[in-house]
Amino acid sequence: MAKKADPTRSSNNRVIATNRRARHNYSILETFEAGIALVGTEVKSLREGQASLTDAFATVDDGEVWLRNLHIPEYHHGTWTNHAPRRNRKLLLHRKQIDMLTGKIRDGNLTLVPLSLYFTDGKVKVELALARGKQAHDKRQDIARRDAQREVARELGRRAKGMT
Predict the structure, then answer these.
(1) C-alpha span between 47 and 51 (Å, rounded)
(2) Strand 14-18 and strand 26-36: pairing?
(3) Residue among 73, 72, 67, 46 nearest 113 (CA)
(4) Average pLDDT in the 93-112 region?
(5) How much is the pTM?
């Protein structure tokens, strides 16, 4: 039921923004691809590659999923029709997906975090993750594991080149 989000599916897809801190602060359990309800000046600003997912999160209110704190700066050629940079934006998901997300968020200690914002065939999509917050010791373990893997790869590279 959950569609695996893959922003690199075709050649005309382009990543606008990524949330690199999300993978550090959260354990990603499941990912979804959702559309976003935007106004015209927001899309024009996104086509210029301007957006920030820092501090962005999603909530489920009254059976609808909302993306909050996504910063899309005002379109510099816009007039009085420009949008508010940090307004709440509705995410477009199927009813079954919304119901499933609502149940999982209510049952477990989970949250919805946007991982990336990208274009797919001319439409703006967001990769949304069902995630659990990490404790400080979990973050340290991940960093230590990553360092160990990097050291093993470095040593294998040296041996392949005959340096040791």
Answers:
(1) 10
(2) unpaired
(3) 67
(4) 88
(5) 0.72
